Amino acid sequence: MMVHNLISTILITGENIGVTVSLAVIFGGLAWLMYRSIKGREVDRRVIFLFIFVAVATPIIFTITFEFKATPIVRALYDKIESLPENSTVLLSYDFDPAMAPEVQPMANALTRHCLAKGHKIVYMCLFATGQGQLERTFREVIRPEFADKVDGIDYVNLGYKAGNEGVLNVIITDFQKMFPTDVNTVPYDSIPIFNNIKSCKDLDFIVSIGGGRPGIKEWILFVGDPGDIPIAAGVAAVVAPQLYPYYPNQLLGLLGGVKGAAEYENTLKDNYPRFENSDTPAIKMMGPQTLAHIVIMLFIIIGNILYFREKRLGKHK
Amino acid sequence: MKRQLPFVLVFIFGAFMVFQYFVPHESSEWVYEFLLDWITIIGIFALALGIYSLYHVSVEKIKFKRENWPYSYVTLIGLFLMVVFGFTGRVGDAWGMYPVFVLTLVAFLMLLIQTTIATNKTLWLGLCAVSLVVAVAIGLFDDTWTINFMTQEGLRNSMFVNFFDYILIPILSTMFSLLAFFIASAAYRAFRARNLLATLLLIAALIVMLRFNPYMPFGLPALMADTSNWLMNVPNLAAQRAIVIGIGLGIVATALKVILGIERGYMGKG
Hints:
The complex is a heterodimer.
Chain A: H1 2-13, H2 17-38, H3 45-62, H4 72-83, E1 89-95, H5 101-117, E2 121-126, H6 131-146, E3 156-161, H7 166-172, H8 176-179, E4 206-211, H9 217-228, E5 232-236, H10 241-244, E6 255-257, H11 258-272, H12 282-313
Parallel strand pairs in A: 1-2, 1-4, 2-3, 4-5, 5-6
Chain B: H1 4-20, H2 26-63, H3 70-87, E1 88-90, H4 98-117, H5 121-141, E2 145-147, H6 158-190, H7 196-210, H8 220-259
Antiparallel strand pairs in B: 1-2
């Protein structure tokens, strides 16, 4: 039924013959494999790889996108930023490397858009050395082209990377300047207007850690959020998200988990801010490949179980 | 004494950090913050040590022609290129002799390594000297480049950015994305309803995956989303809490063992 709905939607809209042909190939192939499994034939792993490749490539080549409604855990983060009064100071920590970037960079960019559009000030920093490069991407892809009127040092500041992992957090909970005497452009801390009323993390209105590795959100909660009673939220890779549920909602106000969380956030932002109607939404685009790949994986699980029960019936499994 | 001194230091500072947490006095805070500075210093030294270790392992691999040794050249060239691009940059839009300068500098460093490991040292030393002379000559007489040693301007160097964006990011993303293929293959083989627990795992996995899917009939998406949220918020939460508390207690026990000198693995020997 689900597959039928997917195919019929594509056929009815008739927008793209490439999508139709690709889906026909994928699901036709899977139906054939299912028939073979009923006959007791195993599926070679190279065939699985081929199907996953086609399932991921088709929505990228022919562009299949979906609309997503924000789940409560994503909505909580969005609402928190919405509810902060104008000129609040939000810290965005880029605690990730390029490997995680496809999942979490869209979150970082969407959060930047939201904060700046709402009139908040942003303090950027990173606990990963390679986070600095990712931070530069946000400046290049979002701030400079979309918020050219925002001024470095007044509306946002880039503190960059500092070695020391949780040691950095242990210091900035009491004194920012001690750890960051200057920003990345070597502007002294005292000369940066954004820090006029900020001495430590305790003076920030909100902190969002984006990443999924270590040091990351757990360290932010342990060393900053809990001791300083500072509201914290996170955007993390999908594999890490389930581990963070124990912290929600008391120690973690909201959570964006993987591409799905990022897509929900992008969608909510687009719905509520017309100025972002034409902004780049990589997470929404990535949901196409992810959704189709999930369907293929689910069908392979079903095929595997058909084979298993067939063999069990024939007494091959004890 | 050589082994006892580290144990004494670990005991003193470990015990101090435990008691300091419960003493909210100004002096106690000051000592705590002073000790935290050491973490930053150690962190920076650890980075330097990591870079040296990468260099040392790669050179050893080339020297003794261990398995896949040619790739160590790629590692070293990549390391030196990023360092040079990070600390230098073009002035304005003109390229001038900047690319030649970078290449000769990297060539000099590579030839220097080759000189230390080669048997015919004279030839490599000669090439090394030539590349150094060319690099120094360009460095002195060409004004299309600058050094960014004290600022982070190097991070905006177009070549640094291009290497990061178009080489490092795709390589790491590719490695990460390969997981999709292996997960699919593993799911096909492992997710089988062999017993009750495996069946529960299978059903939970299907529900969580289905919640992503917008193509479901009869209001099923809402049902799947609710069920999936319940799975994440109740069974998953309970299991994760148990794990977190278990890890926490384990960390406390291990920390105590380290402070009291029972656990000595960090010294390299048990």
